[in-house]
Amino acid sequence: MSTLHAIADLVPFGARVLDLGCGTGELLEHLIRHKGCTGYGIELDDANVLACARRGVNVIQLNLEEGLSIFADQSFDVVLQLETLQHLRNTEAMLHETVRVGRTGIVSFPNFAHWPNRLQVLAGRMPVTRTLPYEWYDTPNIRVGTFADFEILARKNQLRLLDSFGLQDGRVVRWQPNLMASMAVFKLERG
Description:
Rossmann fold, eight-stranded mixed β-sheet, 8 strands, Methionine biosynthesis protein MetW, Methionine_synth_MetW
């Protein structure tokens, strides 16, 4: 199973979807074609906006740091926030916006607690991996997070976890995902 399919499996057939930081629109295109979904992507990068348009994906160019005030409460069935949280300054505000605008949110981010990362830190180096591919001095990531820390953040913000698992090389990891998975995935709603 690929990462795209593992995330797509969390989205109900026919859902209205908002994909925050949608990149080139590959996932949203997949959801439209294979799951009968509708919706929009939000993207800042000019080249990615153009790629979305070429795929036929509805895209809005917007800086997520400014919030989602253009959308009413519960406008979408699902809000995807995949590998965007680590780039945002106000993580908690964006999580609240995610569950305000959508009935459910699906969040993913690189899991800093994955065992190869721990070994690199133990050796005195910041990790460089497939999911964290940048050197410490040129990373677009503002922060790093762990599977376990997100669970605490969700409880603190009164978000109810509907599902959670890790991903490793496209495989779903449910046994010790904080240690065994390079990517953390959470499906959540307002608590």
